[in-house]
Design goal:
Length: 291
């Protein structure tokens, strides 16, 4: 799924966050809405190949820090209002939902502001959330739960949101019903195996096979460096066609072989030699290389 790190809810793309980016907003019918004057999280996300205007609304944003540089990043979640446009500012609060939050304040994210504002004459605003990069995010993901707080000016527009027909441009399952007054951010700092990865291991022996063998973030990033690719280049077999697989494999063979010949071989995190098809050695996941 794709989303924008900086304006979650606007049309954009990620050269994932790496990431995981991301979003746009559907404003159809906002002025004719006759229900409560209220607020809701208007976050959408979808596939790289789909039209952003056709992305479904989503209750969870997936942020992969492996796609971004630096020690922190700020994302902006779109919040919209229902009802008539007002000639004055309207304030609202966003608070942490402790029931689903596993991230720690000032460790994984900065404190939220005391309040946020829908400006006069506007029907939307963005809530900035600053995410902090920490070493433990390499080992396990963390989650931040957010909740909109109703007040005298603004209620909760869609505590029972239903998916909108036609907004279906996504590779993931569409969440058909959720509470749009809450939103969750799932944070990780590792790059999961992309859909266009061409390789695997032999069951039982753990020998690497296929074009690239077992997936590792280290191997993918080396391919990106050698071939001037991005994580998104590996998303699908459409973005990573057979000809590019072959070219990438050939360059990897040259590089890995040269490093081996120089006495400085590239090894994976478990100590085994990095492998692609065409190198002169075999590699088994979990079995360190011995000189």
């Amino acid at each position: 799924m794709k989303f924008n790190l900086y304006k979650l809810g606007t049309y954009s793309s990620i050269g994932m966050v790496c990431f995981a980016a991301f979003f746009s907003s559907c404003e159809k019918g906002i002025m004719s809405y006759e229900g409560v004057e209220g607020i809701y999280f208007a976050v959408q996300g979808g596939s790289n190949s789909g039209l952003q205007s056709s992305w479904p609304f989503i209750p969870t944003s997936k942020l992969q820090l492996g796609n971004v540089s630096g020690s922190d990043t700020t994302i902006h979640l779109k919040v919209m209002v229902t009802g008539p446009v007002k000639k004055y500012d309207r304030s609202f609060q966003v608070v942490i939902n402790p029931e689903v939050t596993t991230a720690e304040i000032n460790i994984h994210y900065k404190p939220l502001a005391d309040s946020y504002t829908i400006p006069a004459g506007q029907v939307l605003t963005y809530v900035p959330i600053t995410i902090l990069r920490t070493g433990d995010l390499k080992l396990a993901s963390k989650q931040i739960g957010l909740r909109l707080v109703p007040n005298e000016q603004l209620g909760l527009s869609f505590p029972d949101w239903d998916a909108i027909p036609g907004l279906d441009a996504t590779d993931e399952a569409i969440v058909s019903n959720f509470d749009a007054s809450i939103h969750e951010i799932l944070i990780s700092d590792y790059l999961p195996r992309p859909g266009g990865w061409s390789g695997l291991i032999v069951e039982g022996t753990n020998e690497e096979t296929g074009n690239w063998g077992n997936y590792s973030e280290k191997k993918l990033l080396l391919m990106c460096e050698l071939m001037n690719l991005t994580y998104d280049s590996f998303s699908t077999r459409e973005t990573m066609p057979a000809v590019l697989i072959n070219l990438t494999t050939r360059e990897m063979v040259k590089y890995l072989t040269a490093r081996m010949s120089a006495g400085d071989p590239i090894v994976e995190e478990d100590g085994r030699l990095m492998w692609v098809t065409g190198v002169s050695w075999k590699s088994y996941v979990g079995v360190p290389y011995k000189k």
